[in-house]
Amino acid sequence: MPAAETPRPRRRPVVLAVAGTALLTGCGIRLEDDAPRVPLVPVRTPLPAEDLLVRLVADSAALAGLAGDTDGPLPSALAALHRRQVTVVRTALLRGGMPPERLADPGPDGPRPSTSVQTPAAPAPTPSGSPSGTPAVPARRRLAAAEAVVLDDLAAVADVGEDLRGPVTTLHAQRWAAAVLLGGAPPVLVDDVVDAAPVARLAEAAGAARYFLEVAAARSSGSRRDRAARTLGTLDTLHADLSRDVPDGAVLGRPLPGPVETGRDVDRLVLDTLLALRATIGGAAAEVVSGDGATGVAGVVRWLGPVEVEVHRWGADLQPFPGLA
């Protein structure tokens, strides 16, 4: 009778335990703080300025909600505009390989408009104050402050990847314009001279716009003339800023794009001029930032924000990314 086989050690539980540990590690669950990386498991490389971009999506969503809760046509327009910003930036990040769950985590501080905008104290209750006696801050002022909060990260925009550099820079110009249009003080920006190739071209465009506004102011009267004069003042400041390090190439006269005889002609000339200037500055945003980094970012916002304000004051729609189609 053959001898009974010697029992062989059962290794299946050990193999399963090792496999289970590998799976946990591959899913990002580390059993020890110093656990080694599992071979052959791909590690995602973060996108340039990823934290800023994730927070920007969260900020835009929070602003859309805040604007939607504020009465008036301007806040309503801003709510739609911010929703568009969320869609565009979020889609670009997902196409760039960012996992959806990463977009759901804006960081430890959360979206800034809902946490960073504090309600300032007032000396005495107003008719709109709360029943507790604490004065209520006008919703538009709170929204204006929330729009300006994003400008705290302006320098970091220079680190954004090339494909998003233009849109993200012009988005910050939109925030600047919204804060001003809502009644807030113009956000203060660094005003260093920008050293980038497009500056001379932008100075020429600002000079042409300034000339057309001079014509518009001269050929109008009453409140229209006052409005044209205010816009001309904005363009004077813009042209002086852009021309600080550019050789003087002033042109005494320029051909008008059409007749300027009636009030409607004046309105058309001003609006067409401002829309063209917005497109010129917005279209050059990425190149300016690529040429001069954080100084270029501040320059674009400093130039484009006031133009966007004037565009709106003359009746055109605000854009989520001013100057970009």
TrEMBL record:
This is DUF4439 domain-containing protein. Residues 92-139 are annotated as: Disordered. Residues 129-138 have a biased composition (Low complexity). It comes from the Bacteria.
